Amino acid sequence: MKRTWWKEAVVYQVYWRSFFDSNGDGYGDLEGLIQKLDYIRDLGVDVIWLNPCYESPDKDNGYDISDYYRIMDKAGDMETFDRLLNEVHKRGMKLIMDLVVNHTSDQHPWFIESRSSKDNPKRDWYIWRDKPNNWRSYFTPSAWEYDEKTGQYYFHSFAVEQPDLNWENEEVREEIYKMMRFWLDKGIDGFRLDAIALLAKPEGFPDAENPYDIRYLTNNPGVHDYLQEMHEKVLKHYDIFTVGEVAFVSPEEGLKYVGEDRNELHTLFHFEVCDEMPTWDPIRFKQIQKRWYEGLWGKGWNSQFLNNHDHTRQVTRYGNDKQFRVESAKLLATLVHTLPGTPYIYQGEEIGMTGVKFDTIEDYNDIAMKNKYAEEVAKGRDPKEVLESLQLLSRDNSRTPMQWDDSEHAGFTTGTPWLKVNPNYKEINVKQALADPNSVYYYYKKLIQLRKQHAVMVYGTFRDFSEHDPYIYAYTRELDGVRWLIVLNHCDNDNVYELPEELASAHRHLLLGNYTDVKEEGTTLYMRPHEARIYALQ
Ligand code: TEU
User: In this protein, which residues make up the domain named Glycosyl hydrolase family 13 catalytic (predicted)?
Assistant: First the structure.
């Protein structure tokens, strides 16, 4: 298999508005990120993924861009961005930008022109129709919005304020490619391509049988032509790393985006876990891993992540954030860093930050959640019940400010934070984590070190030795005669793992574990709640 830096890398996602506020306005900013770069570097991170910081009315926290060539005031300015890039590079790290090209803000001058009249030259830059079909958008009951001025509807896959660009229009594509070159010529190291599987729309927009199953929004014929053109005209001319957000795909479909012979993207985020597996489902999770491994291995590269700015923090959603928070956070980290693919850390995950439950809808900010809340309450449902039903998966679970210390607002801001800090910041914060040698933070650091020292962790073949076990996940990675065994007890109780014959005779050397000692007898491993072990077998 071809060895590349981005397969070996560990990526750290910075949701800058919640990372560190340098000027007291309540929003994190690029200057704040610069001040915390040493913290990120010390963890061992190679690449930073920066959420969108372009000019934006901020209806969807920067995913509604009104000027691709400017930095939004909340984040800073272009001079600060240039300095950030330079400071990242000085520390031997790389920076990839989040880029949204499926849609813009409705305040983008292109859209303002487009909606101004039917014969405006930019009319065709967006998607206009006389009649809507029955599709829903990700965030609203209809994917179409009526525009009185010209008496037509425009299409939006997300919020009303996020009209989709018309990728069939060549001028649109050329403008986007030009803008991508602008950023790449600055020296950024790649893109995380937002909602990239949505670029192509189906001919004629036929009605869906079940409008609630929004798969129709993604993977439509033509998307690969756009990506191959983007690769040809932009991406292939730079030594960069690209990761595309590709929802609702099987490994076979996914391979079309990332196949090494396809000239499209390097890697993808598929969402079989984060979108489609609401709570921990061990057998299903194992099947997903196995299928993606078999589908991609040797042909294209996967990503590993259990949360991001759209998905509730992993220790809350997939682990135990109460009695076993520390053990569970370490177990999930072990999983993400030892399964095949490039591992992602979402800011705060490395100290075991948890999700949040605010008492009122007013305390929430997430447009997806707020729209859904309004829709359900309008149907006559009990508001309290609606709030409760939306809490676990609200995107604000992962967006609360980074917890730096136990001072007011967790040391995130001297002002009023744009979103409330999780009340548990007095116990869970960076300062505490750095002072405790057994913290989640130091465990991440060790995992990342291991990845740098042992190619088996990146390039090793994968085999599951626990397919039907609902609690224990045991698998090997193997490369050039080096064999590792990972054993995880994803459970609040003790469990026993009997080593299969094939592995039983090997000498085991413990490389990393999340308990201070190891209980085993012969070929029987006694695993405590949320215990994780990485062994080298000899
Ligand atoms: O998300 C796209 C998206 O579809 C997610 O809402 C969804 O939850 C998922 O994980 C993929 O199926 C991206 C951004 O990450 C999100 O923050 C934006 O709101 C959205 O695009 C619109 O730009």
Answer: 13-399
Q: How far apart are CA 5 and CA 456, in angstroms?
A: 15
CATH 3.20.20.80 intervals, the chain: 5-104+168-356+405-447
The tokens describing 505, both together, are 């005779």
Q: Residue 428 has which token pair?
A: 């869970």
Residue 60 beta carbon below 6 angstroms from any ligand 1 atom: yes
CATH 2.60.40.1180 residue window(s) in the chain? 460-537
The per-residue pLDDT of the chain, averaged, comes to 98
Centroid of ligand 1 to alpha carbon of 280 (angstroms)? 21
1 pLDDT more than 90: no
**Is 264 an annotated catalytic residue?**
no
CA distance 50 to 11: 10
The C-alpha atoms of residue 131 and residue 129 are separated, in whole angstroms, by: 5
CATH 3.90.400.10 fits 109-155, yes or no: yes
CATH architecture entry for 460-537? Sandwich (2.60)
Please state the pTM of the whole predicted model. Answer: 0.98
For residue 15 and ligand 1, the question of a CB distance below 6 A is answered with no
Q: What is the pLDDT of residues 324-358, one digit of tens each?
A: 999 999 999 999 999 999 999 999 999 999 999 99
pLDDT tier for residue 398 given thresholds of 50, 70 and 90: very high
How far is C-alpha 337 from the geometric centre of its chain's CA atoms? 15
Q: For 5-104+168-356+405-447, give the CATH class.
A: alpha beta
194 classed as catalytic? yes
In the chain, CATH 3.90.400.10 covers: 109-155
Instruction: Kindly report the protein residue whose alpha carbon is nearest to atom 11 of ligand 1.
Output: 247
> Rounded to the nearest 10 degrees, what angle do helices 367-378 and 383-391 cross at?
150
Return the best residue to mutate from 66, 138, 312 for the ligand 1 pocket (most ligand atoms within 8 A of CB): 138
Tell me how far the alpha carbon of residue 29 lies from the centroid of ligand 1, in angstroms.
21
